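Page 37, continued from 36.
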């Protein structure tokens, strides 16, 4: 099916799929690329169950890697638009836009037979599960000599077309951690016959609040979900806390985990409630290469508004690639009127016009290498 970048965005937005389940999304991309682009220098690799790597080889030189993420979130959309999500998921982080920008850029490269080898990665599972690392572990990148890697992320924090980045750490290292507390249920009339797991969870959080704040080495302990108990007249014997820990390096995140384990042991000794601490996906910090930043900030600022935004506590698994290859990642502003909802909001909706702007920025970056 031949689609324009905007048509592709609308199709993706109507049919979002969450991490590691982007099967229809992957098929749509493969079919759209095959139907829309006729270029003998193009090869599609599918080493993982979802996602794809498009190989544009035109000479015997090295490669540039450009990446877009393709997964959505388990959020019900609240926008009333003609391409509104048709299921219970939503591209509330703008990955439909990222994908369409990369597809538009792919069209530009092939139409102009650009004399630079390029890998276009449509990556699964950025939101959960560390899709970058899983895709890399397939070994598909071992066949290519990759010089640099590039990615963008849309945001309505900045006005449409603005570029924001910084040398060094741009986005934080992020670790998913679940805490389970196991006590003993009892009737509320006889609380001493049980051991309240929720009370242990509450004490744990109270102790965490007492930890000193270090301004030059910030740690975010984000609590997204708490649940406990079954009925109103039974004290809970089980409680669970789902969190995200973020800091400016993987090492600082892991050191904070050690601190939390010490607190958990103290809570256990006080309450008798046992615990389990389960670590999930760990995203490295996104590192912007300082040499690339210097060159590209000078070049891009001639055509676009360019902001040195400093580090953000956003987590992004492009950090995995930034540890492998000298990389440049940036925010791409989407706000038209100053209205802001923020990422992962059921009303987050970048305008279609940002697709062309993103493609043009990628082409400007490419000019540095050809």
């Amino acid at each position: 099916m031949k689609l324009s970048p905007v048509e592709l965005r609308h199709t993706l937005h109507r049919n979002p799929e969450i991490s590691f389940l982007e099967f229809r999304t992957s098929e749509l991309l493969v079919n759209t690329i095959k139907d829309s682009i006729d270029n003998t220098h193009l090869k599609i690799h599918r080493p993982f169950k979802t996602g794809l790597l498009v190989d544009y080889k035109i000479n015997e030189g090295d490669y540039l890697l450009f990446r877009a993420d393709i997964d959505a979130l388990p959020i019900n959309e609240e926008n009333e638009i003609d391409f509104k999500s048709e299921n219970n998921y939503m591209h509330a982080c703008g990955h439909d836009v990222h994908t369409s920008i990369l597809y538009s850029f792919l069209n530009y490269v092939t139409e102009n037979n650009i004399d630079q080898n390029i890998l276009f990665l449509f990556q699964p599972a950025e939101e959960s599960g560390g899709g970058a690392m899983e895709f890399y572990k397939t070994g598909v990148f071992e066949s290519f000599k990759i010089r640099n890697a590039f990615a963008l992320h849309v945001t309505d924090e900045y006005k449409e077309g603005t570029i924001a980045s910084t040398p060094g750490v741009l986005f934080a290292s992020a670790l998913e951690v679940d805490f389970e507390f196991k006590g003993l249920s009892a009737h509320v009339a006889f609380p001493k016959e049980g051991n309240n797991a929720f009370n242990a969870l509450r004490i744990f959080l109270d102790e965490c609040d007492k930890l000193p704040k270090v301004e030059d080495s910030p740690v975010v302990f984000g609590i997204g979900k708490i649940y406990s108990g079954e009925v109103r007249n039974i004290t809970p014997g089980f409680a669970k806390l789902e969190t995200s820990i973020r800091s400016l390096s993987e090492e600082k995140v892991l050191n904070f985990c050690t601190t939390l384990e010490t607190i958990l042991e103290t809570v256990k000794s006080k309450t008798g409630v046992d615990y389990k601490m389960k670590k999930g996906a760990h995203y490295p910090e996104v590192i912007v290469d300082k040499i690339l930043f210097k060159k590209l900030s000078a070049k891009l600022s001639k055509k676009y508004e360019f902001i040195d935004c400093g580090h953000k506590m956003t987590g992004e698994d492009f950090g995995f690639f930034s540890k492998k290859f000298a990389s440049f990642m940036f925010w791409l502003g989407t706000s038209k009127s100053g209205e802001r909802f923020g990422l992962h909001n059921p009303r987050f909706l970048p305008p279609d016009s940002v697709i062309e702007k993103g493609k043009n920025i990628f082409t400007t970056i490419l000019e540095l290498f050809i």
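DSSP finds nine helices and 16 strands in the chain. Flag for discussion at group meeting. The first strand starts at residue 42 and ends at 45.
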